[in-house]
Design goal:
4-stranded parallel sheet, 3 domains, Fumarate Reductase Iron-sulfur Protein, Chain B, domain 2
Length: 422
């Protein structure tokens, strides 16, 4: 990375391979190859797939994607291909597969239901990586991301100087160095500002000294690049961010974006090359602990029925399910409702997979499923804890027949939390 929040991608340009030929297994681990072989096509995953729910297209289902990819391997490396020397995959099938694997929200619900335990939430990004490297992806919103991050430090190509200023509360103090750090993330800072403002207000109420990187240094965590299969910049981004926090003496890094937390905990150690010098906590984990220790308290009542939506990369991704509910239940008078599908089995809101703007209609339809169920259960508010969900579900409610108040969990909690005696 260079100054001004820019990331240098010129040293390691995206690898390009023949579209139809060569190995289709280069990007996959031995375990992922076993997973591809293990799919029985039983169809259990279809019951949980949100894309299937809103499109009804089996051609883009999880088993069909795996079947197609196995065909590519067979066509290029199977026994017949070796003997006859015809070792190219069918171009039309490659195009169909590329659309199918990118239309997926990568929510992981299929893997949660998989009878043989395929870890689809990790598999799909690597199949996308294969298509990226073969030049099969022409979704400009995605392929422009590396350059946007290189220039501005964020995938939206928004001004670096606007990363904090529009939303960060003046009343909250940020130190130059501290053992606790807060990472706002790109989607929160630019597209879900009530969410990150709520984070900052709650951190201020807890009162423990914390630090942040400058607007220039807090660049994208790398999740949009990872999930879209564009991995070339990830090692550089990870090392720069990790070393920047380490230089500030950080021992605990707090973030509220599920996608950021997921890539930090699951993938940063790999791209960093060793164990991180700090632990990563989701905001609700930190707040739940502060409630239990008495550092903060909630005394004012809220007599409302709240329904909480589990983000895919928070619940299935890193297993954080109870802490958000602990935070909401700490508010006296709240009745906490549940979606029929919640926790590990939650339904994607439609914003996942870094393609919510490419397959906009699918995403809107999924978001409206959440709105409709929340209204049906007579909730007063739909509570979210993901900036992508926050943006897309609010968008889904525009011109929709059903209406409900939508709020981020920390946006809501910041209105009720008080300093405790702990």
């Amino acid at each position: 990375m260079s100054d001004g929040g820019k990331v240098d991608t010129r040293k390691d340009s995206q690898k390009v391979r023949p579209a139809c030929g060569g190995s289709f297994t280069e990007n996959l681990s031995p375990l992922q190859l076993i997973e591809l072989d293990s799919c029985t096509g039983c169809g259990e995953c279809l019951k949980a797939c949100p894309v299937q729910e809103v499109t009804g297209r089996p051609a883009i289902s999880p088993p069909e994607k795996i079947r197609m990819f196995r065909q590519f391997i067979k066509a290029t490396a199977g026994l017949k291909a070796r003997f006859l020397g015809k070792n190219e995959a069918d171009r039309k099938l490659l195009e169909e597969f590329t659309r199918a694997v990118f239309e997926c929200t990568t929510c992981g619900a299929c893997g949660q239901q998989c009878t043989v335990g395929i870890f689809t939430q990790r598999l799909w990004p690597y199949l996308r990586k294969e298509m990226i490297e073969r030049g099969m992806v022409d979704y400009k919103l995605l392929t422009d991301m590396p350059e946007a991050i290189r220039k501005s430090g964020n995938p939206y190509n928004s001004p670096t100087e606007d990363r904090y200023k529009p939303w960060f509360p003046e009343s909250v103090e940020v130190l130059d160095k501290a053992e606790i750090a807060y990472y706002a993330g790109c989607s929160g800072a630019y597209q879900a500002q009530p969410m990150v403002r709520g984070d900052a207000l709650v951190l201020g109420t807890i009162g423990a000294p914390f630090t942040m990187l400058s607007e220039k240094d807090e660049v994208c965590c790398g999740f949009p690049l990872f999930i879209s299969g564009q991995h070339d910049m990830l090692e550089e981004i990870t090392k720069r961010l990790v070393e920047s926090y380490a230089a500030k003496g950080v021992k605990t890094l707090i973030c509220s974006c599920p996608c950021c937390v997921n890539v930090m905990t699951r993938h940063w150690p790999s791209f960093y090359g060793r164990e991180l010098p700090f632990r990563v906590l989701h905001m609700t984990q930190y707040v739940s602990a502060a409630l239990k220790s008495g550092k903060i308290a909630v005394k004012r009542q809220l007599r409302e029925r709240l329904i909480y939506h589990d983000p895919c990369y928070l619940s299935r991704g890193v297993g954080i399910i109870e802490e958000p509910r602990d935070v909401l239940r700490s508010i006296p008078g709240v009745e906490l409702l549940e979606f029929e599908r919640h926790g590990l089995n939650s339904r994607c809101c439609g914003a996942g997979g870094a393609v919510r703007k490419v397959f906009h209609e699918n995403a809107i339809a999924m978001g409206r499923l959440a709105i409709d169920e929340a209204v049906e259960k007579k909730a007063d508010r739909l509570v979210l804890s993901c900036p992508a969900c926050y943006g897309k579900v609010n968008e889904a409610m525009q011109d929709h027949k059903n209406r409900i108040r939508i709020v981020d969990i920390m946006e809501l909690f910041s209105e009720f939390v008080e300093r405790g005696n702990g």
